[in-house]
Design goal:
With 224 residues, the protein is mainly α. The protein is built from 13 helices and no strands. Helix 3 runs antiparallel to helix 9, helix 6 crosses helix 7 and helix 10 packs across helix 11.
Length: 224
């Protein structure tokens, strides 16, 4: 049976993705350095429109100011902003870090809440950030969708790619719940290492070749 027949259905492609990525990435370390749910929450917030590598360079200096909600709530916003400036969007992120630290003290006894609704009520915390914290800090099944996952889900025809919300729903349908927390990291790892936005034209990486993904229209042939 050829690949076109074998991987004709979305479920067949999803099953192959899950098997192959488990082989490539048996371990799924969290890319953001952190100490506990609070520092993970802040690190994920900082990672918006910023690389994990840069966040990991910045957070040790931030934890020197305050690595708990109690300590961070006492740090002036301007001081937080100065430290996190390399991560971009520093005014908004500094306000969010200050605000969520105070709310954790006021509403949650200084602890990071363990529900999506309570997390998403915190300043600067959207559904993706909440999903990362729920899955990686508390082990609750979730499927955070970042740019890599959104792009690869569309490329592998696991979702139509209309928006990240639809991509999340589509992926949750084709992957078992018990795989979500590790699989979303495995897809990110693969997207960074093998199927980058510019490095794979739809036929360069192993999985795209396997699924006979059409080449990108923007790809130009090299001159002989």
């Amino acid at each position: 049976m050829d690949a076109d027949s074998l991987f004709r259905t979305k479920q067949a492609r999803a099953d192959h993705v899950a098997r192959r990525l488990a082989e490539l990435y048996p371990e799924t370390p969290i890319p953001l350095d952190h100490r506990d749910p609070y520092t993970l929450l802040v690190a994920v917030l900082l990672s918006a429109q910023c690389t994990d590598k840069r966040v990991n360079l910045v957070t040790p200096h931030l934890w020197e100011l305050g690595a708990t909600p109690h300590a961070m709530a006492r740090v002036p916003g301007e001081q937080i902003q100065a430290v996190i400036r390399p991560c971009g969007l520093s005014p908004q992120k500094a306000r969010a870090i200050s605000g969520l630290s105070r709310l954790l003290l006021e509403n949650h006894d200084g602890e990071v809440p363990r529900t999506f609704a309570e997390l998403e009520a915190l300043p600067g915390v959207g559904h993706k950030t909440a999903s990362v914290v729920m899955s990686q800090a508390f082990g609750v099944p979730a499927f955070p969708v970042d740019t890599h996952i959104h792009r690869l889900a569309k490329r592998w025809r696991l979702s139509d790619g209309r928006n990240v919300e639809q991509t999340e729903r589509d992926l949750k349908r084709v992957f078992p719940e018990e795989q979500w927390n590790k699989l979303h990291l495995r897809i990110i790892f693969y997207g960074r290492e093998h199927c980058t936005a510019r490095g794979c034209d739809g036929a360069s990486c192993e999985l795209c070749r396997t699924f006979h993904v059409p080449r990108s229209r923007n790809t130009r042939r090299k001159s002989p």
